[in-house]
Amino acid sequence: MPLGPFKSAIALALQITFALTSPVPKPGPNADPLPLPPLIPSIPGVTDLLSGLVPPLPIVRVSTPPLKSPPFTASNLKPKKLGYFWTGPGNIAYVDFLAVYSLDDDTFGTFITLVDVPTSGNEPHHLNVAHDGKSLVGTGLLSLLKLQDVEYFFDITDPYRPKFRNSGQALLSSIGDEIVAKPEGGFFITHMGSLAGTSPGRLTEWDSKGKLIGEWPAAADLPGTANILKDQFSPHGLSIDFEKNIILTSDFVVPLSTLKPTLGIQKANTLRLWNLKERKIISTITIPNGGGIQDVKFIPGNPDSAAIATAVELGQVWIIYPLKYNSDGTQGVTKLLYDLGPRAKGVVAIYTDFSADGKFLYLSLTTANHIAVLDLSDLEHPVRLDDPNEIQPVIGVHSLRVTPDQKNLVALGYFVQEGDVGILNTPADYKVHYIDLLPNGSLHFNRTIPFQTEFANRGGGRPHFSVIADLTDPAHPKFNSY
Ligand SMILES: *[C@@H]1O[C@H](CO)[C@@H](O)[C@H](O)[C@H]1NC(C)=O
Ligand SMILES: *[C@@H]1O[C@H](CO)[C@@H](O)[C@H](O)[C@H]1NC(C)=O
């Protein structure tokens, strides 16, 4: 290689940036995301072998076509409760995939089927369901390493036999993160980085067919563009109050700074408050020394449209009042809601989910191997329900989903392992934890699905995110509430 790997990465990234930004029209409502072909065509018997020989390269990986999932037998069971798990294989020469499992009591943990996507090493990231319950979209965290697509859309018209439908990527941004379904179809998806993984990222918008509608703030939005150039814009968390016409995004880390060579992870202390209809930033909200604001969520049913945000370095939960004004006239007031204590500080990731009534907040403290529970019935006096010093049977827990019937919490024991190319490699148990929620909101660790053994034929499975379906009433399927 004539250039160092880092330089060649930058060169490639610039090449794509130019290829995608200069000659193409502005992304309008019908703009097709540009698919990037694999760099090496698939030659059976040759490229399969090549995949095994190429070591993981820093920053840019050689784009050999992925190996298909080993043969499997799908089950004809039709459970009422289903978990969809967006999963990367332990051996990243294999394709990334969506696995489907029964969550019914009598057939719990039965493998139903899986669907391959035509990429590998994308580090499957978040997953969510469309408003009509007919499709899913999963994002890829590290698609830029192999210049692959970021968004992967699945048809779940037959919930027991999902099909891969299409994939897409944005023109200015990558590193796909949180996903919120639009009531009229389609999705908003945060992209934590630019095409080269640097700041600024973008808030992207997709239609119901999986076509890119826009990347916000738009290039022509000068105040918005100035805003994201001024303070690190690495949107990870995303929550939308469609009735009050506001969006909150939270800035986490500069993705490229987690990849080698790095001088250390660049963490952000900010959130952006947006006008939904105009897709414009209203203000920047700062949590002093927050050290990566990974997650933000509006509290269900809160009359003030208050939201919570997690400040990872501080191990704290902050509350945001987006409709209130500060003394300097800026919109969006924030204050400390709860300090999760010494074990919660600097735990790399703190993700959350709420009970549907907004009463209980569940928080995963990734490297502390712990799930915390807050009773937020009285926001002036949050009550912690878990014992902060209890040793829980989870390792590296991250994604959380309260099931539609509010009876269980689905927690996944995996965050991110960038491997040799990066510095984010958090320990994991690679399990789906199906935790019973007791009437008082507390956790009862009971059942698991071990992806390490389930997918041992490809080096194990790394489930990053889930979507939970409840088909108890087949005419009205229910899904997780965010
Ligand atoms: C919640 O209920 C369980 C089972 O009844 C009990 O063991 C636990 O102590 C309760 N937790 C709290 C915080 O009250
Ligand atoms: C724990 O799991 C068993 C099935 O293995 C189930 O029958 C039981 O209800 C679960 N416990 C609770 C408290 O939900």
Describe the structure.
This protein is mainly beta. The chain is 8% helix and 39% strand. The chain has one domain: Methylamine Dehydrogenase, Chain H, CATH 2.130.10. It has helices at residues 5-21, 47-53, 222-230, 451-454, and strands spanning 81-89, 95-102, 111-120, 124-129, 135-140, 151-155, 163-168, 173-181, 187-194, 202-206, 212-216, 235-241, 246-251, 270-275, 280-286, 293-298, 307-311, 316-325, 331-339, 350-354, 360-365, 370-375, 383-384, 400-402, 408-412, 431-437, 443-450, 461-470, 478-479. A five-stranded antiparallel β-sheet has the order 3-2-1-28-29. A hairpin with an 8-residue loop joins strand 16 and strand 17 (307-311). The protein is globular and about 60 Å long. One 2-acetamido-2-deoxy-beta-D-glucopyranose binds next to strand 27. Residues 105, 436, 444, 446-447 line the site of one 2-acetamido-2-deoxy-beta-D-glucopyranose.
